[in-house]
Amino acid sequence: MKVSVIGGGLGGLLAGAALSKDHDVHIYEQLEIYGGRFTNLPYKGFQLSTGAFHMIPHGPTGPLASLLRDVGANVDIVKTNPEATFMTKDLKQIPFRDFNELLSAASRSRIPALVMRTVTHKKGNVADMVWNDPEWLAIADSCCGWALSTTAQNTPASEAVAILTTTRKYGTPGVPMGGCKGVVDALADVIESNGGSVSLNSKVDSIMVEDGKAAGVVVGGERISSDIVISNIGHKLTSRLYDGKYLEPKYAGVINKVRPSAGIKIVLAAEEPLVGHPAAMFTPYTQRVNGINEVSHIDPSLAPEGMHLTMSHQTMRTPDVQKEIELGLQDLKNLFPGKKYSVLMVQSYRDDWPVNRISSGFDLGNLTPVRGLFVVGDGAKGKGGIEVEGIALGVRNFLDIFDKAY
Questions:
Q1: Paired residues of 199 in beta bridges
Q2: For residue 119, what pLDDT band results from cuts at 50, 70 and 90?
Q3: Architecture of the domain defined by 2-78+176-258+359-405
Q4: What is the pLDDT of residues 335-374, one digit of tens each?
Q5: Where are the bilayer-spanning segments (predicted)?
Q6: Does domain 260-349 have CATH number 3.90.660.50?
Q7: CB 3.0-4.6 Å disulfide test: which of 13, 191, 236, 373 passes with 196?
Q8: Greatest distance between any 2 Cα atoms in the chain
């Protein structure tokens, strides 16, 4: 079959690589680089990422690593040690599993009940799940903000339970050698070695639909026929590419209601380690920053010799981007008093370039009202998948649908 893929982000590359062994796959990317929010930007000897944190949530044993192996993408993923830490109020780090040390006796007494809730609680949001207890909320907001760019209040409890189940199954994070670019380069190599292509600076103008079925794409005025079309640009942007008569009212109502998750990343350069290890350090006692990592401990090639690459992340709590950035920068000063570092880059992710096109727990799946038109990526994540793991689970779901239909 001839397959056209709109967008060369991680989801599009994963789907394209999986199908390229047996099908004729062509990916059309409007930017001059592929990878979307999952690749590298070289700057002053550092390998800065366009979005993700050079980290794979479940390391070499998770859904993304498994799918990479299945499609033949050669990526070395090294597990982090420790798995994660928390920064306490007095600026000391404790192991993630010792989170009870952050709690008062009263809040600590709720641990057995919360353990049960992490298995059975499916109603409301994460804030409800932790009884809106301020001490528990600080921890929950830090974890939700770092992993999902959401708050405890706007994260469904059912999704949190699914994520915890997935984490128990697959384990803790890892760092892909070469950073995000190491992953997407390997996928592009698979596609091209199988006879497919990844075309850059190639914006898809529209999706051709005949008798309710996707018939191809129009790129730069050229009509390119295909048997199926896969979109990696989310449900809303995809719907703008085909005739509105195929946009079912119910579906249109849903895609107009869903909201992306927005976040801010601040990238630091330092000669001495700020975090001191490659894993995530959660920061529950800040104004904005939810967590920080320092992956150059595992892959020194991500920073110049003798330097460290440190990245913080925070969910956006207000639309005032400049104010949110200022609060994040102040948090970093408070977290690392007396430490010498410089700010390499500040990135905001929102609107049509968000952290997730649809916030975790509200994903719309792979199907569209048009037969033969599918969506993959961060608007079609699999349930219980954190960020890129969710993208991989969503691509797995798509592949199951594809196998049954074709």
A1: 28
A2: confident
A3: 3-Layer(bba) Sandwich (3.50)
A4: 999 999 999 999 999 998 999 999 999 999 999 999 999 9
A5: none
A6: yes
A7: 191
A8: 67
How far, in Å, CA of 323 to CA of 329, rounded? Answer: 10
Listed by start position, the domains of the chain span 2-78+176-258+359-405, 96-170, 260-349
Where do runs of H (alpha helix) occur along 74-199?
105-108, 111-120, 126-129, 134-148, 157-170, 179-193
CB hemisphere CA count around 212 (13 angstroms):
3
Give phi and psi for 15, each to the nearest 5.
Answer: -65, -45
- Compute the mean pLDDT over every residue in the chain, rounded to the nearest whole number: 97
User: What's the pLDDT score for residue 121?
Assistant: 79
Exposed e or buried b per residue across 181-194, where buried means at least 16 C-beta atoms within 10 angstroms of its C-beta: bbbbbbbbebbeeb
Residue 17 and residue 9 in contact, taking contact as beta carbons nearer than 8 Å: no
CATH node for 96-170: 3.90.660.50
Half-sphere exposure of 41 (CA within 13 A, CB side): 16
* d(C-alpha 94, C-alpha 85), whole Å: 5
Same CATH fold assignment for domains 96-170 and 260-349 = yes
